Amino acid sequence: MSRDGIKIFADGADHASMMGLYKSGEVDGFTTNPTLMRKAGITDYEMFAHDILGFIRDLPVSFEVFSDEFPDMERQARKIAAWADNVYVKVPITSTRGEPSAELIHSLSCDGIKLNVTAILTPEQVCIVRQTLHRGTPAIVSVFAGRIADTGVDPIPIMREAKEVLADRPSAELLWASCREVLNVKHAQEAGCDIITVTHDLLKKMKLFGKPLSELSLETVKMFHQDALAAGFQL
């Protein structure tokens, strides 16, 4: 479900967790990437994708290309896009050599392929995406706010600037990527983001939203006490 106007996308590749979240109606979409899929032990990319899409038909699901050569990235993108109408194809903002993906993004977007342009960290990269996306084709612009914060830089001003850059692209939604803590949901709301990706473990913590702090304090004290007893500690 949306919270105060922001969409929550689950970020992960654990099949059971994805199915559980989908059935519960807790999220508005799903994203994954090759790193998450590898950590989940997935060895057959296409089989995993078709399995997921066999269940999740009415929410956006993002799958990423993994070639590093633009012609093959385009082939993969078109293949992935054909899997289902609710698929967004994740295309990195550059190759591993730092070559901009602008021409590829433009070509795919102009052909009506829904993209999730990923691994963006600078306002300049957002400007490139804005210039290359087709106005009428839905797209997601994923700015890795968490990785920006990892460098000691406050990502909120950058996300606000990104939102302004995309103001005349109503079909392009700004996504706060690489969420580090549930407070980032509030940060993303403040910055005007349309979507935030949240990992499965952090989604569980979101159930604490609105919980009285005094109540949480008491639960914490009880947890420490119970764990001390369970461990058999003595002084």
Silhouette: globular
Number of helices: 11
**Percentage of residues in strands:** 15-25%
CATH class: Alpha Beta
Distinctive features:
alpha/beta, eight-stranded parallel beta barrel, globular, 46% helix, TIM Barrel, 235 residues
Outline the secondary-structure elements.
Layout: E1 7-11, H1 15-24, E2 29-31, H2 34-39, H3 45-55, E3 61-64, H4 70-81, E4 87-92, H5 102-110, E5 115-120, H6 123-132, E6 139-143, H7 145-150, H8 155-165, E7 172-176, H9 183-191, E8 195-199, H10 200-205, H11 213-231
Parallel strand pairs: 1-2, 1-8, 2-3, 3-4, 4-5, 5-6, 6-7, 7-8
Helix pairs in contact: 5-6, 6-8, 8-9
Give a verbal description of the structure.
With 235 residues, this protein is an alpha/beta fold. The protein has a single domain, classed as TIM Barrel, CATH 3.20.20. Helix content is 46%, strand content 17%. It has eleven helices and eight strands. An eight-stranded parallel β-barrel has the order 1-2-3-4-5-6-7-8, surrounded by six helices. α9 links the parallel β7 (172-176) and β8 (195-199). α5 (102-110) runs parallel beside α6 (123-132). The chain is globular and about 70 Å long. The N and C termini lie far apart (49 Å). The relative contact order is 0.12.
Short overview:
Helix 8 packs across helix 9 (183-191).
